[in-house]
Automatic annotation (TrEMBL):
PANTHER family: D-TAGATOSE-1,6-BISPHOSPHATE ALDOLASE, D-TAGATOSE-1,6-BISPHOSPHATE ALDOLASE SUBUNIT GATY-RELATED. It comes from Thermohalobacter berrensis. One of its GO terms (biological process) is glycolytic process. The active site is at D81 (proton donor). Dihydroxyacetone phosphate binds at G180, G208, S209, S210, N229, I230, D231, T232. This is Fructose-1,6-bisphosphate aldolase, class II. InterPro entries: Aldolase_TIM, Class_II_FBP_aldolase, FBA_II, Fruc_bis_ald_class-2. The lineage of its organism: Bacteria, Bacillati, Bacillota, Tissierellia, Tissierellales. Binds 2 Zn(2+) ions per subunit. One is catalytic and the other provides a structural contribution. One of its GO terms (molecular function) is fructose-bisphosphate aldolase activity.
């Protein structure tokens, strides 16, 4: 059933588990996520970045996600990931998204507060939940690039002021993760996470979670992470399955036969994440 991000994440926050937020760019990815959620009885967040909306069109993403959510036997929220453009954010709200991220992390602190407050006001008026970002999460994906040196961790004092002044529902924090594939093993600042959780006592979000070792993810969940963003690991599962199939079936040209195994491979990866996050049987 279609719910807001806040409904899903408040439960996760209260009971100490995390919910996967998986990026969608086409029908097979949407189906893989929903199948994984139903097979594990997990709540789940379908999310699209601005890059994903550019690729598929907001109407297509919204239509697929709404059908999927309304038919699903588990709670599903539809989330805009890394929204930076106010018009785009309003467009998502008008298209039925139940959660939006305003990523003001590239602005100075006071400006991040200002842009975030503006989105909270309009989103809450429409019954839509809001995620914001404080501190800079490094790494590269299609539309997001933050150099290592510019990646700055979230300051607990600033986080307290930020949340009080903006009224956001959940906060993406920078504690050592980065978007996209890792070169070495990411070292997460768990002490910082613990302090921020104690000070804010609200749902927290981890970006750049693909490739983070399982024990680090479990420790982050135990210390208060409740929404975990995954994109790269889904891309890698899709990519591997398609390449394998095409290599082994050079004469097959039916997209259903090529994309079907990719859907299955993505589903298995996503079910594994839900187990690690602790969202299994929480629906
Ligand atoms: O935090 C994450 C996922 O990080 P991961 O890929 O490292 O799992 N995200 O917000 C996904 C960002 C995807 O952006 P784009 O569609 O522009 O490439
Ligand atoms: Zn992200």
């Amino acid at each position: 059933m279609l719910v807001t991000g806040k409904e899903i994440l408040q439960d996760a926050h209260k009971k100490g588990y995390a919910v996967g937020a998986f990026n969608v760019n086409n029908m097979e990815i949407v189906q893989a996520i929903i199948q994984a959620a139903e097979e594990t009885n997990s709540p789940v967040i379908l999310q699209a970045s601005q890059g994903g909306l550019k690729y598929a069109g907001v109407e297509y993403i919204a239509a697929m996600a709404k059908v999927a959510a309304e038919k699903a036997k588990v709670p599903v929220a539809i989330h805009l990931d890394h929204g930076t453009d106010f018009t785009q954010i309003v467009k998502c709200i008008r298209n039925g998204f139940t959660s939006v991220m305003i990523d003001g992390s590239k602005h100075p602190f006071e400006e991040n507060i200002a842009v975030t407050k503006k989105v909270v006001e309009i989103a809450h008026a429409a019954g839509v939940s809001v995620e914001a970002e404080l501190g800079k999460i490094g790494g590269t994906e299609d539309d997001i690039t933050v150099d290592e040196k510019d990646a700055t961790f979230t300051d607990p004092d600033e986080a307290e002021k930020f949340v009080k002044e903006t009224g956001v529902d959940y906060l993406a924090i920078a504690i050592g993760t980065a978007h996209g594939p890792y070169k070495g093993e990411p070292k997460l600042d768990f002490d910082r996470l613990k302090t921020i959780k104690e000070r804010l006592n609200m749902p927290l979000v981890l970006h750049g979670s693909s490739g983070v070792p399982e024990e680090s993810i479990k420790k982050a969940v135990s210390l208060g992470i409740n929404k975990i963003n995954i994109d790269t690991d889904i891309r890698l599962a899709f990519n591997g399955a398609v390449r394998d199939f095409v290599k082994n079936n050079p004469d097959v040209y039916d997209p259903r036969k090529i994309l079907g195994p990719a859907r299955e491979a993505m589903k298995e990866v996503i079910k594994g994440k839900m187990t690690i996050f602790g969202s299994v049987d929480r629906a």
